[in-house]
Here is the input.
Amino acid sequence: MSAPPLLELRGVAKDYPAPGGSLRVLHEASLTVAPGESMAVTGPSGSGKSTLLGLMAGLERPSAGTLLWRGRDMTALSEDELAAWRRVSVGFIFQNHRLVGALSALENVMLPLEICGVPGPQARERALGALAALGLAERAEHRPHQLSGGEQQRVAIARAYVHAPALILADEPTGALDGDTAAAVLSSFLALNAEKGAALVLVTHNPEVAARLGRTVRLARGRLA
Ligand SMILES: Nc1ncnc2c1ncn2[C@@H]1O[C@H](COP(=O)(O)OP(=O)(O)OP(=O)(O)O)[C@@H](O)[C@H]1O
Ligand SMILES: [Mg+2]
Here is the structure.
């Protein structure tokens, strides 16, 4: 028997409260993510891309359907169990990096390790390694406001990978960058992904970005094409 997918969505739907009832923003979506594969999610604004990613991250609960992680039903987990799973298994990258402004690049990258209970000196060493892998060794002590947009997004990528999660979820990770910077950040991002063997699900409006990933799924008005 072959190994189960890393993540499987079976008929996953999401409703949000709306005036006069509820609104289904994601209709029964079924899809699998294999270990180590890369997938682009595209679709117009409002089509449900971020909603889909939030469900995959366990940040949102589905209104219908089930999510399976390595064959195990995620919808049965408590909030605490889900949070513990997310800390270990998922790295999340947002369009606007969401780094902690008061912390240095190094301290930002150390955060996921500290949350997982990795001792300080070891966390420091691994975070420095993650920054160096993205060409940021000289920027470790800089605060986010002392970094360019592309550098900030690289720090966010280092932070997402530092604890070696099996799944990376990225919501328009290069959307705020100019074309050349976006292409360079994406290149180092994909190289890191291949090296770490993480599965990557990346939301993008940009067909050139999508073309560089293993496959593309499209959303239109809350439905997977
Ligand atoms: N918390 C919420 N409460 C109510 N409606 C929501 C909520 N979050 C999202 N929606 C609605 O769900 C739909 C899908 O939103 P979503 O953010 O997933 O779209 P998207 O494809 O990521 O769009 P964009 O490309 O603009 O980021 C939208 O119509 C949005 O208004
Ligand atoms: Mg979105």
Observations:
- Helices lie at 49-56, 79-89, 105-115, 120-133, 149-161, 179-196, 207-211.
- The first strand starts at residue 7 and ends at 18.
- The domain at 33-58+76-224 is CATH 3.40.50.300 (Rossmann fold).
- The chain has a mean pLDDT of 94.
